[in-house]
Amino acid sequence: MNSIKENAAVADESKFEYERILTGDRPTGPLHLGHYVGSLKNRVRLQDKYETFILIADIQALTTNFEHPERLKENIFLVALDYLACGINPNLSTIIIQSMIPEIAELTAFFSMLVSVNPLRHNPTIKTEAKERGYKELTYGFLGYPVSQTADIAIFKADLIPVGIDQLPHIELARKIVRKFNELYNCNLMKPFALIDKFSKLVGLDGNLKMSKSYGNAINLSDNFDLIKTKIRSALTDENRIHPADKGNPEICTIYSYHRAFSNENLIRETEYDCKNGKIGCVKCKENLFKIIKELLEPMNERRSYYLNNKDEVWDILFTGTKKAGLIASDTLREAKESMKISYSFS
Ligand code: SF4
């Protein structure tokens, strides 16, 4: 953890003041509990402290889903609905649709001149993601998505980026690109810092290291309670435990890792003790977890129902946020082009 803290790209809230957060998601489908633990919960907390911009990155979604652009509109709506259900407050957070800010694409083009291909190829996050997706050949768009992420950050003048530790190489690259741009053209674009979130990952129901829609091992925030109960019942536990009186090992159990993410300290301690000493069966342990998750999701479902009955309000929130962010984007692009001495126009 020390080496993370000492990394120049990592924010130190005890020493410096930051103003604007940028965070976001690719709209590839409904969000799940992994998203909640990894980022949404944190965003709800952070929106009270910092000006928060949340980008629904529909263009970036095409880097892995380019065959189905027709699904984007529905997915943008579903992601926005998940945000609002979780407690993202549109009065505190600005939600933005990426493709409606053309300035991002223009800044991406400028930034792409400053990055050679090899560091992108060797970027550990890109390599891991390509491997997970089974990509043998990388498209230009996929390989270059950290460059477009840099443009996302710079265009909105964001100085704080909440990320999991695996995303740190992207922030380091973003800082390098912005620094190079600033030095080369005597510009003053904002260099971002990473705000590392310690609960960055939730394992999948199958025990896979990552909960993911594409692995089919996720509990979606929008799943109904019957489905959630069924999913929890099917989750991988300590396979060596046959009878409730068998002594178990919670450290290798998916359900225990969920208890650690969602339950209170007493229940976590009790679960660990009872499992290790054969005092609780997995069925009961899963029921306990279901109750906790139900309590978490109930208020979210209330907000979700409200917005489902008022869909226009959701689009209104998206368009208002995008319009507000668009003003900052055009300002940044003007500054960038002026510094490059290419701010000519027809007039
Ligand atoms: S009792 Fe709970 S923690 Fe232990 S193996 Fe079963 S489900 Fe996992």
Write a structural description.
There is one protein chain. The chain has 347 residues and is mostly helical. 54% of the residues lie in helices and 7% in strands. It has 2 domains: 2-202 and 311-340, Rossmann fold; 223-306, Tyrosyl-Transfer RNA Synthetase (Orthogonal Bundle). The chain has helices spanning 2-6, 33-46, 58-65, 72-86, 102-112, 117-121, 124-133, 140-143, 145-155, 168-185, 225-233, 254-262, 265-276, 282-309, 311-340, and strands at residues 20-25, 51-56, 93-97, 160-163, 193-196. Helix 10 (168-185) links the parallel strand 4 and strand 5. It is globular, with a radius of gyration of 22 Å. The mean pLDDT is 93.
Outline of this structure?
The chain is built from 15 helices and five strands.
